[in-house]
Amino acid sequence: MKTPDSFKRDTQIVHMGSDPDAYNGIVNPPVYHASTFIFKSVEHLLETRRDRASGAFEQFTYGREGTPTTRALEDAVTQLEGGFRAVVTSCGLGAICASLTAFLSAGDHLLILDSLYGPVRQFCDEFLSKFGVQVTYYDPLVGAGIAELVQPNTKVIYLESPCSLTFEMMDVPAIAAVARARGIVTIMDNTWASPLCFQPLKHGVDISIHAATKYISGHSDLMLGIAVCNEETFIPVKKTASGSGYCGGPDDVYMALRGLRTLGLRIPRHQETATTVARWLQGRPEVARVMYPALPDDPGHALWKRDFTGASGLFGAVLKPCSEKQFAAMLDHLELFRMGYSWGGYESLVVPTYPATLRSARPWTDTGPALRLHAGLEDPDDLIRDLERGFARLAAAA
User: Which of the residues bear the PTM N6-(pyridoxal phosphate)lysine (predicted)?
Assistant: First the structure.
């Protein structure tokens, strides 16, 4: 059920994708464990086949293509993003791969930012290239200058802002304008911002990707992806996702929809805590720089302030040069910032990062070790004490 646009965002989050009248008054859409749907007649079966062939996908035909639970989540995130329709997949990478392959064929050219999510780079290098797609990595700070990199066979421009691991801000509207003028599809990973802090489609992007595993879920216990499409891109993405087997499990879909209800409360808290910890890190003698666009002195702050309405809890830091022994001593015994991949859950996380190994268009010049931190929902004073003890171990290991 679509909630009125006159409602404020927090009200929409509570009620969108919910239709109690359709489920005997039940507040939450039920979990449908379904592979098979029964057809009432031959005409009904043929009707659903025609629906699928046309690309409408309004009727339910097979579990891989979704259930009423899937549709509820898709409708809710679509409304938050201001899109046409959405496609749920098994993970964020699945949503990205389905979106890319929906518009790329052998002989086509893809422009993709240099500092993107690592597994997507691997997909480009090991799969797209093998099947004849030409891939060019571009400087994320290129802005409207991307027009100079466009080739006659460029079919897709891929964005992510802020960038993975290094948090540069991209001029999304400028790049989208170049693409739209040339009929090029734009796809953006919007997981960092969540639908609350940025809506790519409202800035000219065609497809907005979310790893619902992260902030939409909020609890580090599911795998799911969502591609929110405009009207022109929905059918190709839906057909590609269905034909490739990128389907979300029913329980994960249900938990993502439940997690979405508290997104409006969690994101501001993540931002508040991340800002507190990031500012504290800026004052530490062991830290060379902090990478968080919400900070006023961050190089990307002006773009963030212009286009975004908030920030999440994910940010980066570069330490001053130290030994591997010191670096390990700091990280190995942190109590609250536990080492683990993913982010967006209620808990704080930290991982060492190695941006120099993932760059080709924009070299990484920092000489000290780098970190990616996720500020969870713990008290920021406790998080700061945890890091403070880590720096004490780093100093003692010298």
Answer: 214
Long-range contacts of 277-280 (CB under 8 A, 24+ apart): 277/373, 277/375, 277/380, 277/383, 277/384, 277/387, 278/315, 278/317, 280/384, 280/387
Q: How far, rounded to the nearest angstrom, does the alpha carbon of residue 285 sit from its chain's CA centroid?
A: 33
What's the pTM value of the predicted model, to 2 decimals?
Answer: 0.93
How far apart (Å, rounded) are the C-alpha atoms in residues 384 and 270? 14
Average pLDDT over the chain reads 94
Using CA atoms, how far residue 7 sits from 82, 233, 283, in Å, is 14, 27, 41
Describe the crossing of helices 68-81 and 250-260 by its angle, rounded to 10 degrees: 40
Which positions are annotated as active-site residues? Answer: 64, 117, 189, 214
What digits encode the pLDDT tens for the residues 355-373? 988 888 888 999 999 999 9
What domains, with CATH codes, occur in the chain? 9-32+67-260 (3.40.640.10), 264-396 (3.90.1150.10)
Tens of pLDDT, residues 64-86: 888 999 999 999 999 999 999 99
Q: Residue 120, CB half-sphere, CA atoms under 13 Å: how many? A: 31
> Which tokens sit at 178?
């170049």
Residue recorded with tokens 């290098």: 125
Nearest to 50 by CA among 42, 63, 237: 42
Asked if residue 237 lies in contact with residue 227, where contact means CB atoms within 8 angstroms, the answer is yes
